[in-house]
Amino acid sequence: xxxSALSRETSLDSAVGLIQARFGSAALQRAxxxxxxxxxxxxxxxxxxxxxxxxDALVGxxxxxxxxLSLCLGSCGSGRxxxxxxxxxxxSEVSAAVLWLDLGRQADPWLMGRLGxxxxxxxxxxxxxxxxxxxxxxxxxxSLVRAGVGGVFIDLPARAGRxxxxxxxxxxxxxxxxxxxxxxxxxxxxxxxxxxxxASVVLGMERRGWEERHGDITGVRLAVTVEKNKxxxxxxxxxxxLAYPLGGFIAPRREDVAR
Amino acid sequence: xxxxxxxxxxxxxALVLREGDVSLAHxxxxxxxxxxxxxxxxxxxxxxxxxxxxxxxxxxxAEQLCPQALFLxxxxxxxxxxxxxxxxxxxxxxxxxxxxEGGEAYIEVDGLGEPMEFAARVAAYLERRLLSRxxxxxxxSKFVARTAAELAAMGSRxxxxxxxxxxxxxxxxxxxxxxxxxxxxPGLIGRLKLFGLRTMADLARLPLASVEAQFGAEGLRALRxxxxxxxxxxxxxxxxxxxxxxxxxxxxxxxxxPLLFVARGLVDRLGxxxxxxxxxxxxxxLSLELEDGEKPEERVLRLRAPMSSADELWQPVQGLVQxxxxxxxxxxxxxxxxxxCPALSRQMDLLARQDTRLEDIARQLTxxxxxxxxxxxxxxxxxPAATTGGALVPLVEERRHHWLDPVEVLSARSRPTGRRRPGxxxx
Lengths: 259, 427
Known about the structure:
Distance between the termini of chain B: 54 Å
Structural class of chain B: alpha+beta
Strand order of the largest sheet of chain A: 5-4-6-7-3-8-9-10
Structural class of chain A: alpha/beta
Helix content of chain B: 40-55%
Low-confidence stretches of chain B: 345-355, 417-427
Largest sheet of chain B: 5 strands, mixed
Low-confidence stretches of chain A: 33-44, 247-259
Distance between the termini of chain A: 80 Å
Number of strands of chain A: 10
Strand content of chain B: 15-25%
Oligomer: heterodimer
Shape of chain B: extended
Helix content of chain A: 25-40%
Radius of gyration of chain A: 21 Å
Largest interface: A-B, 55 and 52 residues
Strand content of chain A: 15-25%
Number of helices of chain B: 17
Largest sheet of chain A: 8 strands, mixed
């Protein structure tokens, strides 16, 4: 009996070895593999740093992955826009053009510029009315992704994430971003299940408190939780402090426009 | 751990090696140009430095300090050659080596044995090549390693290694001056001084949010460096590669038909090697060794797109051979491929990030503007009042920014400078 079990184990090892030799070590792994892993083994997705080291470390690949859908969820005032603007600044540094779909109609170019976004690379897509034009906006975004923009950000108004019209178009947009290998970040208060299912990284944001100085609010303390992570370990959370850019002046870079 | 090698007298070493005169290193020699030129000193020998001459000083002042010194112009080409040779030598010692713009080299020493012993090997190699002893620093990040090497260089005349154990970066940096060691904008250094922040410890103890609010993104970077949190990665050097195949023709031929036959064989062999390695080549060099010992003829062809198979390579090679004017019999045909890139890149161009396709984006924006109106996609630009007001931000959104036509901006960026618009006047 023992010999039979040993034989089975040997055969299994041999088969696993053959599969791994042919298709790579990431193709098949034992669930009880003792190797501690920070990220899922295999080819790591490229990532763009968010500009917030704590969040980069939390995701596990040094930023938000490119070619994959990332969601940033949180209620009003939870700091998700601040995080997205930081990420936008990082993406605009390495891309020729970045697309921001302002479906929430709350984008603030001044704040984007203050946080380091290269405004001469920012395309702000703002449909006249949200309800009727969400399809138009997504189709326009899809065509721009195919034309070659280097990143897509969507700021959804409340409830839009649960709209029936949103999911199929968003899936098309996510597929186009995956083909172009560009970052795709969606901001919202809540998302429908299909989009959560399609997302590789879901960040949950919650405000923990304000940073104050001489009685003035200078920043916000946030709790960031990785609710879902296909590229690293999910479930981790951290607390970060983000400053509002009110004290110093960040000069916009307009050399490209001037040129 | 990262090892930083500082080679401060690279121009001097390049000159000594070019001239082949070792005695130059032991005489007062100043490199940078003639004393009558309004240029700074780039390097000086130890003999010249003993007179008070240092890099950055005007040449005229150096002449006043040491009139008997030999003033020589710098040779950037020799310096570049020497830097390349040094890099190749260091690459033989370690697989991940980076040569930075300032002349310093960074080596990842993890997995290469005891770091101090490895540093001794590197020091011996550099001393042998440069005829002077380098300064080395070992730390967990590039900035701390470089700072350690700078301190090692200041510590003594000889080769020295300064190691900073992991975890003690902040205490190591704490007493150092921000003005001398922080590689940030000089304007920021001036502002830090105005705030009384003179040492790394002064800066490192400040809260992150406050520094960012006061000094912006550059201040945040300075703070992280002062705390020893340098996350800049080591960018390893990739040595140039080449593939070569040759065939001796016996007897030598002066006819294009057998030459084409042999060339096809060489292309097939090179194509197989390209496929095996997953490479694509961008440059073909064809060399013809002639029978009577004349100087070999060489033809270079730069391909418009990387090619990764024999069939692709054959067409340009065939054209190259057919245009040869063979008057003397050819004894040997050699083909060399250079300028390699991953073979997939050409295929993946359809799928890869298309950041540079500004014209495509501009064209698509024009279509969207025609279909849905110009207000659908716009590009913001901050108004001067919003950019110079500091904390006083205009409350009305329309006074902060105005909108630009993205088509015009992107078209202007994608258009080369000085090129005329087709059918239009020069803008």
